[in-house]
Amino acid sequence: MTGMQRFQAIMAGQLPDRVPVLCNLLDQGARELGMSIKEYYRRGENVAEGQLHMRKKYGYDSLLGLFYVAMEAEMLGCRSIIYAEDGPPNVGQLIISEPEDIRRLQIPDDMEELPRFRELSACIRILKREAAGRFPVIGVVTASFTLPAMLMGISGWLNLFLSGPTELRSLLLEKCSQFCRRQILALRQAGADLIVYTNSVGTATFVTSRQFHDLVLPSVLRDLEGIGTGDLVYFNGGGQINPQLKTLVEQTPLRAFYINPFDDIGEAAGMLNGQALLVGTINDIRLINGSKEEIDDQVKGIMEQGKRVTGFAFGTLMMPYVIPEENIRAMLESAYRYGSYKRGA
């Protein structure tokens, strides 16, 4: 089966030959092409070539149309991106430092007007063409509740949503929601088959249950209103979401959830009760120094729980650049072996 066929099978409530595997390698594409990370991310063609090269090399089931998370801040006016030699680019300039910056923030009507989005769009179009229907192309957007952290810093955003003026908070969330919605539509137009909706600041790691219900949930519903959600996957972005999962599946139209390595798969499956797809994740920080035996045990445990669930996929978070190649291979070989649905596997 192809990667696309595996995802189509679990979305139809059927068993594929093995559990579909999502492997989120990003900056590693620069190493594959012998480029610096800064040079690599300069052009959409480079990222597409890197993604195609890595998927062929490792054999996983999707193609990732994503540069680096901070690029969304760049699209909205950030003029300074910090490039590391062995990690993702990061924001070097916060575009919101005072209340008036929120009022001045402009959300483009057409994402293709933005030079950086055009590079991303070009990347996705190449991936779509080269995939030829064999592998889903995945786009990524940041939820309106999380995007402000990139625009004004996490401490600035926490201060605003916890104790700042309600009018400013609402205005910023509304503008970020416009950006999120327009980007989802533009990613689809470029050819993305699935779109990961990332809401790290909205997870139980950062907010209380009351804050989730009062602030996060309304922002999620606004982001998704009237745009269709059949291709969206709710991604934890590194925070735990099990305490929120029952509410999300009952009160939003989302039907696919990417949980955290510290979220219990069995508990999540019980709350979803067959109403949504579930992506169980490995703690990829432990892949940096873990032995092959330790990696094998991690993957085996995830697969043993996940294969009891209808509609299950295996995934990573955003894999650090410094994970040794042999450990990436060890994880994937274990995932293919323990994820098999063949009799006796």
UniProtKB/TrEMBL annotation:
Q: Which InterPro entries match?
A: Methanogen_methyltrans, UROD/MetE-like_sf, Uroporphyrinogen_deCOase
Segments crossing the lipid bilayer:
135-158
> A GO term (biological process) for this protein?
porphyrin-containing compound biosynthetic process
A single GO molecular function term of this UniProt record: uroporphyrinogen decarboxylase activity
Q: Which UniProt keywords apply?
A: Membrane, Transmembrane, Transmembrane helix
Residue ranges occupied by any Uroporphyrinogen decarboxylase (URO-D) domain in the UniProt entry:
4-338
Q: Which domain of life is it from?
A: Bacteria
Return the protein name. Uroporphyrinogen decarboxylase (URO-D)
